[in-house]
Amino acid sequence: MIIVNNNRNDFEYDIHSLVKAFFPPEDVVVITPGNPRTDQISGKEILAKIDIVFLEASETQAGADSIRCSFESQKEQCADKRAVHSREAAADFSKRRITKDALKQCLYHLLQEATGQNLPWGSLTGIRPAKIPMKMMEEGHSDEEIRAHMKETYFTSDPKIDLCMTVAKKERDILNRLDAKNGYSLYVGIPFCPTTCAYCSFTSYPLAKWAERVDEYLDALEKEIRFTGEYFDQTATGIRKNGTGAVERTGEAGRRHLDTVYIGGGTPTTLLPHQMDRLLTMLETHLDLSGVHEFTVEGGRPDSITREKLEVLRAHQISRISINPQTMQQKTLDLIGRRHTVEQTKESFLLAREVGFTNINMDLIVGLPEETIADVEDTLKQIEVLAPDNLTIHSLAIKRAARLKMQQEDFSGMHMENTWETIDLTAAYCEKMGLEPYYMYRQKNMAGNFENVGYARPGCEGLYNILIMEEKQTIMALGAGAITKFVLWPKEAGLDDSREAVKDPRIVRVENVKDISNYLERTDEMIERKRSKMEELGLI
Fold first, then answer.
1. CATH number, span 180-487+508-529
2. Which long-range contacts (CB under 8 A, 24 or more apart) does 11-18 make?
């Protein structure tokens, strides 16, 4: 365990993430005046202690704000057993961004000195690193200025700067083809899975326990879909409330156009063919899909895919699907609870090609229990033969609700490690397959300070992935556990266009309850949450 004593009730996430990046296997506890966390550290073996002290100008000889960081190792795993290291950096506590950058720079240099490590991402800990070059490009900065900023401010390595720049440019070019501000995207969550995988913490439930209530769930979804059409989609042709408070159509043009639809989960293809047909027909009935650029259905588990289901998807003109093996190592599939075979993955993929799908995504996870770099390369070789149009490489992130975290005794002693050599290997294979990076994000609790990268053949990029990652467009989200994200640009957010702050939209989230039973009982309440927030924001 690493203990961090912070004398301010602030910057806990940034401190935790950066320390964790240097010590991936260790638990990191950040103690603040407002949260001593004594229950988390009692009786634990301590590897190192870090002290972070924010000093007001009146407390320093220089008469200026500063941050002092010190590191004391307790075990020989550190570069110098029992060594004490110290760093201090000037700051300006009246400016949060400057203070945050100074803190992370000071802490990074301290940990770099104490451990002898250089991190490829430097001090960057945010989940959307491509946002930095994207924003600077929009502000008119040159490539050289962006590179210098990332190197000087965050100490990012050249390869990771290259990746950020490539992704940002690809995203910018794709987004420039859209009128994202006046459009919206739709997410529909199907929270059922054949079984729950050991690493997963998404809202998902074993289908066997819910099979008799799937149609009831679709009934609830239809209410949310109808609401979206009436209050949001251009098929509503404009609405208003009459004197009695009821909604009526005005014949005016609708507010937004629908750009992308993404049916995710869970595993949407756990739906029976007639249930999938019903869901897609509901969307076609209540929404105007005529301008949709991309319609994705996440097939996910190969053991949930059949010819009849694929034919239903094709009949409804679904343009993009996912068939996600996560690995092509049977021993790993068995270990993590994915009850399908490697052969089923291959059969499902080839069947989808036979039915006529020309844009198929596959997901892989590196860092899974007991897998070696040789296993990962074997998986990549098998994927190369299939030649998917998209390949998303995830670094294992063990979240709090995942079985790998909650039932650690079942996986104790197992090798779970990712390396930069493995990440480089996946990038090399994607390049060999003609796939280019087009979006990227990072997660908490990742097995190492790595990233997730989506690769695609030119023209097959996942538009929805870019829109949700770069927060450029409102995402209406329906179903249990779905989170709607309203992206409000200057006039919608009530900001003066002359203010510099208008370069960044305001993000407002509205969450649906996660539990399926609660969702079914409270669907009307979920709809009212959205309606009330849209009214508050002036969207209706």
1. 3.20.20.70
2. 11/100, 11/103, 13/125, 14/100, 14/103, 14/104, 14/125, 15/52, 15/103, 15/107, 17/125, 17/444, 18/104, 18/107, 18/108, 18/111, 18/123, 18/125
